[in-house]
Specification:
The complex is a heterodimer of chains A (621) and B (496).
Chain A (H helix, E strand, L loop, with lengths): L3 H23 L3 H25 L2 E7 L2 E6 L2 H24 L4 H20 L3 H19 L6 H31 L13 H18 L7 H6 L4 H7 L4 H11 L1 H7 L2 H22 L3 H22 L2 H29 L15 H15 L5 H16 L1 H26 L7 H5 L14 H16 L8 H9 L10 H20 L6 H4 L4 H73 L6 H22 L1
Helix pairs in contact in A: 1-2, 1-4, 2-3, 2-4, 3-4, 3-9, 3-14, 3-19, 3-20, 4-5, 5-6, 6-7, 7-10, 7-11, 9-14, 10-13, 10-14, 12-13, 12-17, 13-14, 13-16, 13-17, 14-15, 14-16, 14-19, 14-20, 15-17, 15-19, 16-17, 16-21, 17-21
Chain B lengths: L1 H17 L5 H25 L9 E9 L4 E7 L3 H18 L7 H20 L3 H22 L4 H29 L7 H7 L8 H16 L9 H7 L2 H26 L1 H27 L4 H23 L7 H36 L15 H14 L6 H16 L7 H19 L15 H19 L2 H18 L2
Antiparallel strand pairs in B: 1-2
Helix pairs in contact in B: 1-2, 1-4, 2-3, 2-4, 3-4, 3-10, 3-13, 3-17, 4-5, 5-6, 5-10, 6-8, 6-9, 8-10, 9-12, 10-12, 10-13, 10-18, 11-12, 11-16, 12-13, 12-15, 13-14, 13-15, 13-17, 13-18, 14-16, 14-17, 15-17
Classes of the chains: A mainly alpha (621), B mainly alpha (496).
Chain lengths: 621, 496
């Protein structure tokens, strides 16, 4: 049955997918492509609001035992519009960056948005995996958008292969769900048989941690910064990485049913929030700092999923999407204008472009957890739930929150710095180091930032009363809504302020291990990539030198055997035949001898024969 | 109807070969026309197909042939063979279109490929073991001629190796067939009869031996590790269209034998050998992927990924033999995945081999590092290669995902240890991305300079294959509706 709701749900995925594919294949001119993309993205936003209200479910037969299901529940109703609104704003901002060919860029972004929308609404494991891996492929194409630069393509390759390594968890989960007997629908996974439920939870957990760039997978996000800034603004804030956290929130009942999975999630999440927070604090490159911060903030979402704070996690996801996409867009705008994303080169940048500067400031204050901005409230909603589970984890969470304030403060200090005239030269030396700056930020480049700044400031309402209760009810928060106690809110606000003051006053240490992202990439390269390549080379040598040579040798042995047989045939069998023939020939010669043609000799022979015959008869008779 | 489908190409081949006055252009177009008609005929069969009752075949045709040994001319299709016949018709049509620019003896080539198409379709349509074997062996002869006549490099040696190795395999197969024949009472080579009769039931010694003979024969043709070493040289030295047919269609003759003959006719023995088959499948998956990762020759690389992809099929049909009561559904899913994989691999790998042929035709090299930045001079080639690579690494929205998802879900649910084969899709992803990166991205260097983009014949042969893979990937139901009942039948037969 088709209702406006179900039609809108198909369209919210199908429209961007189709439009994206058409743009990529037909490659229209830039102006046309941009207009089509913006129109489609705006329509998708409207559709997403429609389905968020109507909450439809659609299903068509797909594989045996698992339909292709799209469904909108409370959680999806919150996240889907977020993803699509950010998509629209990022596409607007990308117009300012003039990424050419626009058809390919905007088409791929729309394809990605469709995959993300499908991920949000997927109702069964095959549907989820379908969307999940398409997101990965689109992200590969987007990170490697400037294909003529091989290093960027290699970065995309790292991102794709690393996340796919984690995706194997979902394939495993699909097998476990099939065996577990409860079906492949996401809502039924927790009802799977006990043994298989553990496999399922492990698979889902690994896949989600990989996509969310949690430890130990975080390094791919660092490399993914090689892509254009608008790509990071969408993929590495609101969509792809966020989907890792989202999946865990969605499958929270499954995790909870196993007993151990929530603890793994909580410790990995808290550990990532803490360690990647430290990494962020030491990055000299703004985009690298933001990437590490994304890992850390997603750590809070993963922590939420483990602690059962689904509503707090969802609110954090939404608020972080606004904050981080704003900051990536600001970093992109400054990079395009000044040609650098090094913090040292961005000193005092707010004074030159004040609207961008103020928007970024709002986002950074929110990221720092300064009250009453968004991440302050959402993070505390998570930490309150964690405190009930484990004081130790709560302490780690608070430390991670302090680190968020510290790295956000570090950026704030830089961009608001009043550069003395004698040091201006040192700052200007960074200009045009990474690309040629245009020296300007166009309207399209800063307008979306204002919208995002409003969201970054106000999204905390999702976790605060009274709207927090509505959200908690909508997402089906286990145990209902509990407002965060005022003392906890006050304490975290104070910690954030204190951390801000500290970094404003003192220099932050930057140990090497943190600057190099904990050596994660080197470890992956040494422990996984290189051994695999070596094993491949060894297998290839084995194939050529042992297996293939074995076959060749068998063939050669056969040939040798054939030659031997031939020789035996000539010297043995054939010789005997010839010997026999020679014997016969001699006998023939002998037989010819009596035939002399002379009558008297014939008579003599006849007499001899008669005599011999008579003798024989006499003797035998 | 099936007789027409099987022998029409042969008839055209004979006419083409017998009329030497026919010009090259006309010969090329006659080939395209015949392949188109074939595709249309298979389409008609597909449209009129209704799932036959278990143990029976649709569109069956039967006539006396060699009654003395219980062999008849018996053709028929079901959900296992019809998708493969359709895939065969598509791949041969793509080759016909690609070969429209062939300059080397096009008339003979067209005739030879039509002959090959006949025998390949014959294998899939055959419902009699002798008939099956005749077609099976003739395919080897045809491919030998293709490699030796139109190949490059060390083609004579590669062709000979291919011929001798696969011919030896087919002898093992024949031995197994004779074993089945001898065990049946009354003696017969009729496939549905043998399947229904299960002649070696309760023969704990003879059954496994006969199955071993058949398995070795099929394993050589598929090929699985360790019987695969004829494949890389055969591909490397074969012409593009030859490689496309070899990988796309001929390898399926082996895997088809697993689900058509070996498993249903020898269920007890199959169950006994199931873990061995699973192990061979897993090893083929991982080993094929690892060796492919180390290749620098594009065609050798794709050849080894074929071994990897066929490994999934072997893994799935092996897992189907791990019979227990509560895994009927997962095992049916695995077999469905295996058949889907045969179709999917046929489409995608043919496309990749045709693209590799473009490389050789333009610059005379398959060496990945001889190129660089091809995306600049040849954007369409780059786009199609990228799509083909992603399709081959099992990206969702392409047929490979539908196949591999089912293979894995079904196999893991039956035997969790098979999850180790998942690493295969990871290595495949890495190797295709590396290959694409080396060929297409970066600054334009080496052989890529002045590289001409795809011509119409190349585009119209490769693109439809990939579009079909996309269609199956997004809308798998038409295919799966056909395959699922047949896969279920195979699983039921295995449970006897």
């Amino acid at each position: 049955m088709t209702t406006p709701g179900t039609a809108a749900l198909w369209a919210v995925v199908g429209l961007p997918a189709t439009a994206g594919a058409v743009l990529v294949v037909t490659r229209p001119r830039d102006r046309v492509a941009v207009r089509v993309a913006l129109a489609v993205a705006a329509t998708a936003v409207l559709l997403s609001v429609l389905v968020a209200v109507a909450r439809p479910t659609v299903a068509v037969p797909f594989l045996a035992g698992a339909d292709f299901v799209l469904t909108v529940d409370g959680l999806a109703a919150l996240v889907l519009p977020t993803v699509l609104v950010v998509t629209l704003l990022v596409l607007v901002a990308a117009v300012g960056e003039a990424l050419t060919p626009a058809a390919r860029f905007h088409g791929l972004m729309l394809l990605f948005a469709a995959a993300a929308a499908l991920t949000v609404t997927a109702g069964t494991l095959p549907t989820l995996l379908f969307a999940w891996e398409l997101m990965g492929a689109a992200s590969y194409a987007l990170i490697g958008f400037w294909w003529w630069d091989e290093a960027r393509v290699a970065a995309g390759c790292t991102a794709f292969v690393t996340t796919r390594a984690a995706d194997l968890g979902l394939y495993l989960a699909a097998g476990a769900a099939l065996a577990g007997g409860a079906g492949l629908a996401l809502v039924d996974l927790a009802a799977s048989s006990t043994g298989w439920r553990h496999v399922l939870a492990a698979g889902v957990l690994v896949a989600a941690l990989g996509k969310a760039a949690q430890l130990p997978f975080s390094f791919w996000l660092s490399r993914a910064m090689a892509g254009p800034s608008p790509v990071s603004a969408l993929l590495h804030s609101a969509a792809m990485v966020a989907m890792g956290g989202y999946l865990l929130l969605r499958t929270q009942p499954l995790l909870a049913a196993t007993g151990w999975a929530p603890w793994v999630a909580m410790w990995v999440g808290a550990g990532t929030a803490l360690l990647l927070g430290a990494v962020a604090l030491t990055q000299p490159d703004l985009k690298q700092l933001l990437a590490a911060s994304t890992c850390a903030q997603l750590g809070f979402v993963v922590l939420a999923a483990g602690a059962g704070a689904v509503a707090g996690g969802a609110a954090h996801l939404v608020a972080h999407a606004a904050v981080k996409s704003l900051l990536f867009l600001a970093a992109g705008a400054w990079l395009a204008a000044l040609g650098t994303k090094q913090l040292a080169g961005l000193a005092g940048v707010t004074r030159r472009w004040s609207l961008v500067g103020w928007s970024a400031t709002v986002a950074l204050l929110a990221l720092a957890g300064i009250a009453p901005l968004s991440l302050w409230a959402t993070k505390d909603a998570i930490l309150a739930a964690v405190r009930e589970e484990s004081p130790a984890l709560y302490a780690v969470g608070l430390a991670a929150a302090a680190l968020s304030a510290a790295y956000a403060g570090k950026v704030l200090v830089v961009i608001w710095r009043r550069v003395p005239a004698d040091q201006q030269g040192a700052v200007d030396a960074y200009r045009d180091q990474e690309e040629t700056g245009t020296g300007r930020i166009p309207l399209a480049g800063w307008l979306p930032l204002l919208v995002l700044a409003v969201a970054a400031a106000g999204a905390g309402l999702l976790a605060l009363p009274p709207t927090g209760a509505v959200v908690a009810h909508a997402v089906g928060q286990p145990g209902g809504y509990h407002p965060v106690p005022i003392p906890e809110l006050a304490a975290s606000a104070l910690i954030a302020l204190a951390a801000l003051v500290v970094v404003a006053r003192w220099r932050v240490p930057a140990p090497r291990w943190a600057r190099r992202w904990l050596g994660l990439r080197q470890a992956a390269s040494a422990l996984v990539t290189r051994p695999t390549l070596v094993a491949g080379a060894a297998a290839a040598r084995f194939d050529d030198r042992v297996l293939d040579r074995g076959v060749a040798q068998a063939a050669r042995a056969t040939a040798l055997l054939a030659r031997r047989a031939a020789r035996f045939d000539q010297r043995g069998v054939d010789r005997m035949v010839e010997v026999a023939a020679a014997g016969l020939r001699r006998l023939g010669h002998l037989a010819r001898r009596p035939q002399t043609g002379q009558l008297h000799q014939y008579y003599l022979q006849a007499v001899v024969v008669l005599v011999v015959g008579a003798v024989v008869l006499v003797v035998l008779g | 109807m099936l007789t027409v489908i099987v022998f029409l190409p042969l008839l055209v081949a004979v006419v083409l070969a017998g009329v030497p006055r026919c010009s090259d252009t006309v010969a090329r177009w006659i080939w395209v026309g015949a392949a188109t008609v074939e595709l249309a005929l298979v389409g008609v069969v597909w449209a009129g197909y209704e799932t036959p009752p278990p143990g029976q075949l649709a569109f069956a045709e039967r006539a006396a042939w060699i009654p003395g040994v219980g062999s008849s001319y018996h053709l028929g299709v079901d959900g296992l063979s019809l998708p493969l016949m359709a895939m065969t018709a598509v791949v041969f049509l793509a080759c016909a279109v690609y070969a429209l620019r062939e300059r080397h003896r096009p008339r003979v080539q067209a005739s030879l490929f039509l002959f090959l198409q006949s025998v390949c379709l014959g294998v899939f349509a055959a419902a009699d073991l002798i008939l099956f074997f005749v077609f099976f062996d003739l395919s080897i002869v045809g491919m030998y001629a293709v490699i030796a006549g139109w190949g490059h490099g060390d083609r004579a040696r590669s062709a000979l190796k291919f011929f001798l190795y696969t011919f030896l395999g087919s002898l093992a197969l024949l031995t197994g067939f004779i074993g089945l024949y001898a065990a049946a009472d009354p003696h017969t080579f009729d496939m549905p009869t043998l399947t229904a009769e299960n002649p070696l039931a309760g023969r704990p010694l003879a059954g496994p031996v006969v199955l071993a003979a058949i398995l070795i024969g099929l394993a050589v043709k598929t090929p699985t590790v360790p019987f695969h070493t004829w494949l890389p040289p055969a591909h490397t030295d074969a012409p593009a269209v030859g490689s496309a047919v070899l990988a796309g269609v001929l390898l399926k003759l082996g895997t088809y034998g697993f689900v058509r003959i070996a498993a249903p006719m020898l269920p007890q023995a199959w169950r006994g050998w199931a873990w061995v088959i699973v192990a061979v499948g897993v090893v083929s998956v991982l080993y094929g992927a690892l060796v492919a990762l180390a290749q620098t020759n594009l065609k050798r690389m794709i050849a080894y990924t074929s071994i990897n992809h066929m490994g999934y099929v072997v893994l799935a049909v092996g897992a189907a033999g791990l019979v227990s009561v509560d895994t009927v559904e997962p095992r049916a899913v695995a077999v469905t995945g295996a058949v889907t994989q045969m179709v999917s691999h046929g489409l995608i790998t043919s496309a990749l081999f045709l693209l590799a042929g473009v490389l050789y035709e333009r610059a005379g090299s398959y060496d990945l590092h001889a190129y660089g930045g091809l995306a600049a001079p040849a954007p369409i080639f780059a786009a199609l290669f990228a799509v083909g690579a992603f399709a081959s690494l099992g990206l969702p929205a392409f047929s490979g995902f539908i196949a591999e998802f089912q293979v894995f879900a079904g196999s893991i649910a039956t035997a969790p240890v098979t999850a180790v084969a998942l690493l295969g899709i990871l290595v495949t992803a890495a190797l295709f991305l590396r290959a694409g990166q080396a060929l297409l991205t970066g600054p334009t260097t080496g052989c890529a300079k002045g590289f001409g983009d795809l011509r119409a014949t190349e585009l119209w042969s490769v693109a439809p294959l990939l579009v079909l893979s996309l269609l199956i990937g997004v809308l798998p139901r038409p295919l799966l509706d056909l395959v699922e009942p047949a896969a279920r039948t195979v699983v039921d037969l295995l449970g006897r």
